[in-house]
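Extended Data, panel c. Modelled sequence:
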Amino acid sequence: MAKAKAIVNRRKSVINTRKITKTMELVSTAKFKQAFNRVSNAMPYRRTLQEVMSDLAAAGGEVEHPLLERREPAKHVTVLLVTSNRGLAGGFNSNLVRMARAYVEEQRAAGAEVALYVVGKKGINGLRPSGIPLAGELLHFGDRVRYDDVEKLANQFIAAYESRKTDRVAVISQKYLSGASQKPFTQVLLPLETETAAVDAGKKPRHVEYLYSPDAASILKSLLPAYFRTALYHAFLESSVGEQRARMVAMKNATDNAEGMIKSLTRAYNRARQSQITNEIAELMGGVEALK
């Protein structure tokens, strides 16, 4: 009887766990849809800005701007790692931390000094065992990233690049590929690229004739900082999509595993109960025989 009671108690515990994971799956699904909509809504603006920049670069000829200046080899590299503040998202954070460690080691091996900024508690905790010093710990970015917060960070990187305190700015975040596919990705945002930024994979470049006032080069110079801020903000949006997608999948797998355990525990309880009933019948029959 004690064994059957233990199985019942364990099954109740797993049932309660399933309720929690199922609820978290539903919450993550709703947040994923919201984050996905934000990325979808921001994509046309970024793509149009890229196309305009490409056309301006073609019309303006050789344009000189601090954000376009290439400095090779890079002596000072700024790396921004975008992770989450919360866990239960499968390998989302661990994969990003692993990529960040490899990239930092690669840059150090090339002789560069690396300043690593980390967004999210999970990334900060994941990098502590490596002993890599952090230039900044950014914990104020939540599920719904505000453009104003990203703009302040972008302006900080722009000022560092223009003052030559850094020669490269790279962002390591979850790259959005489709509604069902995301992966960790390292993207160099500074120096900026104007020639190939507007050409999507598999698409022919388009050329639009504009009337410029004052001139294409002047307009391009004012657009470059705006493009960098937009690209950085888009990286945050994509990372939010990846986080919610990873948590949704992790909770779905946990719910499925809990259901499997419940079925297994139910079968074990039935076997224990049948064995108990058999023993009780055998004892009863033994008592009957003893009274004869």
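The longest helix spans residues 216-291. This feature is highlighted in the accompanying rendering.
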